From TrEMBL:
<dbReference type="InterPro" id="IPR016898">
    <property type="entry name" value="Polyphosphate_phosphotransfera"/>
</dbReference>
<protein>
    <recommendedName>
        <fullName>ADP/GDP-polyphosphate phosphotransferase</fullName>
        <ecNumber>2.7.4.-</ecNumber>
    </recommendedName>
</protein>
<dbReference type="InterPro" id="IPR022488">
    <property type="entry name" value="PPK2-related"/>
</dbReference>
<comment type="subunit">
    <text>Homotetramer.</text>
</comment>
<feature type="compositionally biased region" description="Basic and acidic residues">
    <location>
        <begin position="236"/>
        <end position="250"/>
    </location>
</feature>
<dbReference type="Pfam" id="PF03976">
    <property type="entry name" value="PPK2"/>
</dbReference>
<keyword id="KW-0808">Transferase</keyword>
<dbReference type="InterPro" id="IPR022486">
    <property type="entry name" value="PPK2_PA0141"/>
</dbReference>
<keyword id="KW-0418">Kinase</keyword>
<feature type="domain" description="Polyphosphate kinase-2-related">
    <location>
        <begin position="7"/>
        <end position="229"/>
    </location>
</feature>
<dbReference type="InterPro" id="IPR027417">
    <property type="entry name" value="P-loop_NTPase"/>
</dbReference>
<dbReference type="GO" id="GO:0008976">
    <property type="term" value="F:polyphosphate kinase activity"/>
</dbReference>
<comment type="function">
    <text>Uses inorganic polyphosphate (polyP) as a donor to convert GDP to GTP or ADP to ATP.</text>
</comment>
<feature type="region of interest" description="Disordered">
    <location>
        <begin position="232"/>
        <end position="265"/>
    </location>
</feature>
<comment type="similarity">
    <text>Belongs to the polyphosphate kinase 2 (PPK2) family. Class I subfamily.</text>
</comment>
Length: 265
């Protein structure tokens, strides 16, 4: 693995790229484009933390994160892609997918949550589905975050020992350790069938999360021919003279207690 990117270098470039993502957002909004960014990879590969940095300064009315739970009883009877179609962006929107329809090619297949026929049908239909999206004008970008077994093990252990991140672990996550080769074979087959010219896969080496975030953002920006959109000129007006309004007396019962004051010496 390459040496970890120094924090100062990382933070400077992260700020620059996040500023460019805001420019991209304004272009998507003004030009009424539709952008989907798919984040896939093994458990603890760094998808969630990258999505967090991508979305940090974006307008949630323009860019939204989609992280669907497991399908319910009714959804399991629908066409597999149906609930994902509901999440597709409208004009001027960006959708960041924290896992996606590729669940069927990964965890569902490896853990036995779908049948062999359902898995085979997915590998056949997915390229067709994605070609339809791209043909309709949607910008589709797909990223696979690749993490080594040793680094995944280290991250799992760190989460287990951190009460603030313990919720990120599940029994299925931990079982992925013993099923490493099964997941590897499933990923290889998935990419073989779904790495199409209209929507190719981009692999992100994510053993160093700082490098992964920077590399993914830079690649995304370089893949879209966006431009800076002139923003309307705004000016904060002078505050007008008062009209005689008097603020009512404070009612202590309506105010949140000043907990911060208890922290001071």
């Amino acid at each position: 693995m390459a040496d970890r990117l120094p924090r100062k270098v990382y933070e400077q470039e992260l700020a620059r790229l996040q500023a460019e993502l805001v420019v991209l957002q304004e272009w998507v909004r003004a030009e009424r484009k539709r952008l989907i960014v798919v984040f896939e990879g093994r458990d603890a590969a760094g998808k969630g933390s990258t999505i967090k940095r991508v979305a940090e300064y974006l307008n949630p009315r323009v860019a939204r994160i989609v992280a669907l739970p497991r399908p319910g009883d009714r959804e399991r009877t629908q066409w597999y892609f149906q609930r994902y179609v509901e999440q597709l962006p409208a004009a001027g929107e960006i959708v960041l997918m924290d896992r996606s329809w590729y669940n069927r090619a990964g965890v569902e297949w490896v853990m036995g949550f779908c049948t062999a026929d359902e898995h085979r049908r997915f590998l056949h239909q997915c390229p067709i589905f994605e070609r339809l999206l791209v043909e309709d004008g949607i910008l589709l970008r797909k990223y696979w975050f690749s993490v080594s077994p040793d680094e995944q093990q280290r991250r799992f252990q760190a989460r287990l020992e951190d009460p603030m991140r313990r919720w990120k672990l599940s029994t299925i996550d931990l079982e992925s350790i013993s099923r490493w080769d099964d997941y590897s074979r499933a990923k290889d087959e998935m990419i073989l069938y779904t790495d199409i010219p209209e929507a190719p896969w981009s692999i992100v080496d994510s053993d160093d999360k700082r490098r992964a975030r920077i590399n993914m953002m830079a690649h995304l920006l370089s893949s879209i021919p966006y431009r800076e959109v002139p923003l309307p000129r705004l000016q904060v007006p002078e505050r007008p003279e008062g009209t005689g309004y008097r603020r009512p007396e404070k009612n202590p019962g309506n105010y949140v207690p000043d907990h911060a004051a208890t922290l001071l010496p």
